[in-house]
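U., I forgot to send this yesterday:
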Amino acid sequence: MTAPVVVEGLTKVFYDEARGEVRAVDGVTFSCHAGEIFGLLGANGAGKTTTLRMIATVLAPTAGRAAVMGHDVTREAEAARRCLGFYSATTALYPRLTARETLEFFARINGVEASRIAARVEALVERFGLGEYADTRVDKLSSGMKQKVSVARTVAHDPPVLVFDEPTVGLDVLNALEMQKVIAEFRAEGKAIIFSTHIMSEAERLCDRIAIIHRGTIHACDTLQRLREATGKRYLEDIFVHYVAPAAPAG
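Result:
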């Protein structure tokens, strides 16, 4: 059976007047299975966000391909979008809508049947701990609460594939742990989840497999246990450095 997300040789080239051709993502290949959290681990600027934006049909690949639930993200972008929820910190919310209205709006535009919207929104309000703030305008919410609303609207249509670009950045410790718990629950429901982060402890706690990305290229991809066995190192920080740091000079 084909995995819900298949990425093969995905490449994105940008052109910069000063630097010329810049390969932000270079030949990335991986798959993500149902009931799996696939972690894309890398420093800022490593190519995580660009990779996820191509999978989510926001950016067109320069080369290679990606498919979501069998739909090519370039040739069948609309069908692919219906099957996924994409969270990015750059995705804006409508400031004059309340949290509840925001979820209702995104459920509606993503095809949730009108008769199911109210129940779906209430389930999301409870799941994300939004009850006290559900009828507060978005522009009056704290940054952490806005982030929760943004993640909740990502899953408003209950898609089989979820793509999270650093969803806990900016949250305090308790809210970050709560968010991780919710994402783990989505895995238990059988969703295929791609999760980018630069936080090592988060990747260790959540991810079934981890791809280490550096300068647009995946340097290693496996379970944490197998990465430990391959490198002889216990801690993910050390494993990460093993794959991305330049070799130390001799002598």
